[in-house]
Amino acid sequence: MDRRNFLKTLAAAGAVLTVKSNGMMDVMASTVPSGSAQNASDSQADLVAVMNGEPAAMLQTAMKELGGISRFVKSGNKVVIKPNIGWDRTPEQAANTNPDLIVELINMCKEAGASEIKVFDHTCDNWTRCYENSGIQEAVRKAGATMVPANEQSYYANAEIPRGKNLKNAMIHKAILECDVWFNVPVLKNHGGALMTASMKNLMGIVWDRRAFHSRGLHQCIADITTFKPAALHIVDAYRTLATNGPQGRSASDVVLTKTLFASTDIVAIDTAAGKFFTQVNERIRFEDIEHIPDAEKLGMGTMDLDKLNIKRIRI
Amino acid sequence: MLRKIRIAVALAVITLLTFGFVDFTGTHEPWLQKIQFVPALLSLSAITLVCLIIGTLIFGRLYCSVVCPLGIFQDFFNRLSKTIDKKKKYGYRPERPRLRWGILALLVLAWLFGFTFLVGLVEPYSAYGRIANELFKPVYLLGNNLLAGISEKTGSFRFYRVTISLQSIVSFVVALLTLLVIAYFSYFHGRTWCNTVCPVGTLLGGLSRFSLFRIQIDKDKCNNCSLCSRKCKAYCIDSSNQAIDYSRCVSCFNCIDDCRQKALSYGPVKLKKRTANKEAADPELSKNTGTDTIDESKRQFLKSSLALAALAPIALEAKVSGRKDTRIPISPPGSISHKNLLQHCTSCHLCVSKCPSHVLKPAGLEYGIGGLMQPVMRFDRGYCNYDCNICGQVCPTGAIKPLTVEEKHHTQAGCVVFNVDICVVKVNRTSCGACAEHCPVQAIHMVPFEGGLTIPETEPELCVGCGGCEYICPVDAVHVEGNPVHLEAKAPEDGPTIKTEGFDFGF
Fold first, then answer.
1. What 3-state class would DSSP assign to A260?
2. Whole-angstrom distance between the N-terminal and C-terminal Cα of chain B?
3. Of B287, B309, B331, which marks where a domain is finished?
């Protein structure tokens, strides 16, 4: 059945391509006003934190406070969702983003009229096992979006990072390069080296050569990559939090059911909030030591001063 | 009819078996690999062995025509030669028992002395496995990547691109040379390889001599035209004596169709006829194939095998303990020890092909010359996935035992070694933690260092030797040393209970 579909699509490809390129022009025109609307509206929250709900319900609540999905996705947009799928672990082990959250976001994007929705991550463990055992591949397919491989260098293209300090260029996944809008959807975890991983650290999964990050100064490189084509919205999944032995975890005792979700357009603010939340869960980690957050603030990617922001704290 | 059935079955077998080698998606579980003779012998799979032996005693060397991939593969070249040269003739050649049994004896000796490499070199299943893995697979992957490129343009990612790379220069060259030699022999000399060099051919030939079902010549119908003999790719029909050397007949059934007199048939041996046959062929046969000679060489073979069997363990021991490399190779989890691998692995490279993380590579001289091309774990392209146990599941020879995921978690194939003096945290004063990030058991984990920095610390008894740390370390400060005999890895203990409730937003 799939092959037949594939062949059908292949046959129709020529026609579709011309239509698509026209559609893209409209999209480019329409993204400009949405950007200005973001600054104009005061009633929209800058950062939303939701507690005590299921992943889908918490996202719905947060999205409402942020002004709805249509603020981010316009009809015909090519959308990318970038969860953390780094490890060959089950959803219960909390090393990857919760699949239910991804499904809800896909549904929202479809409602907003997205023309295509791609989901990928450059995994650490074997990618087919990660895609499968994280439960994300199946959930994404069922929800009608496309799982895109990221296992091969040819899926990436070199890109300049003009605002980067240590990282001046990197091989970035083509799905990110080619999309109109993308969502950064990490899971909140402990990390042996970066202490905590949330929105910023998740960006390492759009890059091919990760090792360069570690040799050129991890925190600064993480901060540098935030300046490249920022995501429209960052959603931190803290439904289950991997408090210790991150980012993989090794047993159930590392996982805490925290039932929380953060969402913001400001990557510095959301990781500040997530970091302060995380240091409650793992009290041995000091927020001040998570250096990549102030590093990104210095690059002008957002603010750590949460008091300046319009923050919504909601308990379901 | 029999010939057509033989061809159909052989085609199906070689297609499926080859697919087992080239498939990279893991959807197909290779099983034809497990019914091959040498793997069954090495893994002592009693059921398979008994089936193959009894099968040969009943039906002759059908194995060589429809099960052995190298045998079937040779028939392609054979067919090609007949298509190109329409007048191709074979004729009858006397058996060369000394050579056959001599080669077999040599191989057994080589194996006993730890030169499994030589056995793997000519053992037909493994020889074909390497050809499939080193030569066919890259072509298959190239085709897949082209298909993936086309399907991507339509927005489908059902096919995905994969990296094509050379597994090892040595095994590539060996596979290529094997292909050339096999192509040469089968193109010009039919099944001479199978009836001279191949150890399985010799062993099964020894059995098929007594097989119940066999090709028989009806002397009343036969007009001594010698057509069957000229068409026999095994050179085993002595038409002038109306006799067949059953030790070399591979039951291809070509002669049955070729005979215009319908004098040849395949069926259970008729005792009366058999004696009659023997009498007729006796004067020639007893001199040519000479039962005396066979017995003598067999006797010699047995004697020397037994004598040298006693010396073999000593030689093996010297080999394993005599190595003084700085880095000890890491054999795959389930291989138990370097010694077990050395004794059982014929380097078919099925594990190399199936390893989803591309960790298993054909060894160079890491295990010594006897272990050339046997699988070794290398972490330049990936590391051993904690929950993956495919290599042991597919290994047909018992060189890598099948482990459950749980058993694998407690197997220490190698152990972490950390050199703090070149670690980026100490040298550059930046955070890293890549090694700890990749460690599934936290045998290498981060502990507080100067300022807010963390630095790796090892807990070797937890290490499983997966190589995640070695793979990702940006400066080679951490690597894994192999365990010549695999050890048990200690199960990690649960950490202190973390606060599980009463959280606020925290900001």
1. strand
2. 83
3. B309
Tell if the CB–CB gap between B499 and A256 is shorter than 8 Å: yes
What gap in Å lies between CA B270 and CA B279, rounded to an integer? 14
Q: What is A68-136 written as a DSSP string?
A: -GGGT--TT-EEEEEE---SS--GGGTSS--HHHHHHHHHHHHHTT-SEEEE----SS-HHHHHHHTSH
DSSP state, B322?
T
Q: Are residues B297 and B338 in the same domain?
A: no
Before B97, cis peptide (omega within 30)? no
How far is the alpha carbon of B326 from chain A, nearest alpha carbon, in Å? 25
User: With an 8 Å Cβ cutoff, is A264 touching chain B?
Assistant: no
Mean pLDDT in consecutive groups of 10 residues from the start of chain B, 507 residues: 94 97 90 95 95 96 96 96 91 93 96 92 97 97 96 90 91 96 96 96 96 93 92 93 94 93 91 47 42 52 55 47 64 96 96 95 93 95 94 96 96 97 94 93 93 92 96 94 96 76 84
Contacts with B, A 26-85, CB within 8 Å: 49, 51
Spell out where B121-274 has E strands: 213-217, 237-238, 243-244, 264-268
- B445: in domain: yes
Listed residue (A211, A192, A249, A212) closest to B454, CA to CA: A192
Residues B292, B379, single domain; the answer is: no
The fold adopted by the segment(s) A43-315 is Rossmann fold (3.40.50)
Query: Can you give the residue range of the structural domain that contains B432?
Result: 315-488
Question: Which of B309, B336, B356 finishes a domain?
Answer: B309
Is B493 inside a domain boundary?
Answer: no
Taking contacts as CB-CB distances below 8 angstroms, the residues of chain B near A304 are: none
Do residues B153 and B267 both lie within one domain?
A: yes
Q: Which of A78, A214, A289 to mutate to test the interface with B (most CBs of B within 10 A)?
A: A214
The 8-class DSSP code of residue B396 comes to S
Mark whether B293 and B357 lie in a shared domain. Answer: no
Here the ipTM equals 0.82
Tokens at B158, concatenated? 């059902």
- Inter-chain residue contact B498 with A253, CB threshold 8 Å: yes
For residue A148, what is the nearest residue in chain B, using CA coordinates? B157
> Within this chain, do residues B275 and B328 fall inside the same structural domain, yes or no?
no
B363 CB-near residues (< 8 Å, 6+ apart): B168, B329, B371, B372, B373, B374, B375, B376
Q: List the 297-316 stretch of A: residues with Cβ below 8 A of B.
A: 306, 313
Q: Is residue B500 part of a domain?
A: no
For residue A314, give the chain B residue with the closest CA: B505
- The pair of three-digit structure tokens given for residue B448, joined into one six-digit string: 């507080």
Q: Tell me the shortest Cα–Cα distance from A3 to chain B, in angstroms.
A: 9
β B360-362/B375-377 pair status: antiparallel
- Kindly state whether residue B501 falls inside one of the protein's structural domains: no
The Cα–Cα gap between B36 and B73 comes to 15
pLDDT at position B451 is 84
Residue B192 and residue B260 in one domain: yes
Give the minimum alpha-carbon distance from A113 to chain B in angstroms, rounded to a whole number: 17
Q: Which residues of A touch B160 (CB under 8 A)?
A: 149, 151-152
Name the closest residue on chain B to residue A11, using Cα atoms.
B154
Residues B288 and B335 in one domain: no
Q: For residue A279, list chain B residues with Cβ-Cβ distance below 8 A.
A: 506
Q: Which of B356, B436, B473 lies at the smallest CB-CB distance from A128?
A: B356
Classified as helix, coil or strand, B192 is: helix
Q: Which residue of A has its CA nearest to B383?
A: A125
> Please, which residues 19-48 of chain B have a Cβ atom closer than 8 Å to chain A?
25-26
Task: Tell me, yes or no, whether B280 and B133 share the same domain.
Answer: yes
Note whether A192 contacts B433, CB cutoff 8 Å: yes
Q: Kindly report the pTM of this predicted structure.
A: 0.85
E strands of B287-410, at which residues? 360-362, 375-377
